[in-house]
Amino acid sequence: MKCKYFNAALAGLILSVSCAVNIAQAGLIAFNDRATFENYLNGESIDTLSSIKNTGFTGIFSSNDFKASGKMHQCNTNVDCGGAYDNMDNKYLLAYNNTLDFSFNSPIAAFGFDFNSYSTKIYNEAVVVALNGVSSQPTGASGGFFGIASDDGSTFSTVNFVSNLKNTVFDNITYAASVKTVPVPTPSTLAIFALAMIGLAARKFKR
Fold first, then answer.
1. Alpha-carbon dihedral sign for residues 52, 53, 58, 63
2. Which of 30, 184, 191, 205 is deepest in the core (most CB within 10 A)?
3. What is the DSSP letter of 121?
4. How does strand 66-75 pair with strand 56-62?
5. Out of 1.10.760, 2.30.30, 3.30.750, 2.60.120, which CATH number does the structure's domain 28-176 have?
6. How far is CA 10 from the centre of its chain?
7. Residues 18, 59: Cα–Cα separation, whole Å
8. Rounded CA gap, 74 and 185, in Å?
9. How many CB atoms lie within 10 A of CB 57?
10. What pLDDT score does 113 carry?
11. What InterPro entries does UniProt report for this protein, alphabetically (predicted)?
12. How far is the C-alpha of 37 from the C-alpha of 85, rounded, in Å?
């Protein structure tokens, strides 16, 4: 009986360690707070989308450092795209469908923006966005911020944006070429920890 429980505990421990290793290898940290995100960066660029001049649908939006592609609406005044949003000014982009792609002229190590949704404001549906497969916390009508950053100093040149709702709006696109790296547990460190825990568990079950 003890052996049975020990095997179950061992399997659970191995599974937990495996999940932790995947997180450590993922290479990205999620931020749901702008201040914390910006503090992690070695300087940042913020595009307030002030270059938007005309309202209307487009398949490509180009800025100095990046290009966004996908079906979107350029919003130039608060009467466009569902009116004003609490966490952005009167110039922003609306992702008509659930996804957009950003491509940068030079590699970056962090990317984020303020976001909201027409459906959230009107129908109080929670909006969740994802950047390169990393998801934000659900956000209500007041909107939110979401960003991703490298946890080891590595860089990327493309960002895939996905939302659970259509008509998600975003502004104040923030990015940086480098970050203040923070040590992340490596697989070898986690493996040593796992072996130690297995040893302790084995001693307990032998008694």
1. negative
2. 30
3. H
4. antiparallel
5. 2.60.120
6. 33
7. 41
8. 42
9. 10
10. 97
11. Ice-binding_C
12. 21
Q: Quote the pLDDT of residue 195.
A: 55
Q: List CB contacts of 33: < 8 A, sequence separation 6 or more.
A: 145
Q: Could you give the 3-state DSSP secondary structure of residue 108? A: strand
- Do 176 and 68 form a contact (C-beta atoms < 8 A)? no
Taking 50 as the pLDDT cut, the residues of the chain under it are 1-25, 183-184, 186-190
Contact 14, 176 (CB under 8 A): no
Q: Is the dihedral of CA 146, 152, 153, 158 positive or negative?
A: negative
Task: Kindly report whether the global pTM for this prediction surpasses the value 0.85.
Answer: no
Tokens 């491509």 -> residue = 103
Question: Which residue stretches of the chain are H helix?
Answer: 2-26, 34-40, 118-123, 187-206
Where do the structural domains in the chain lie, given as residue ranges? 2-20+185-206, 28-176
**Helix pair 187-206, 2-26: axis angle to 10 deg:** 170
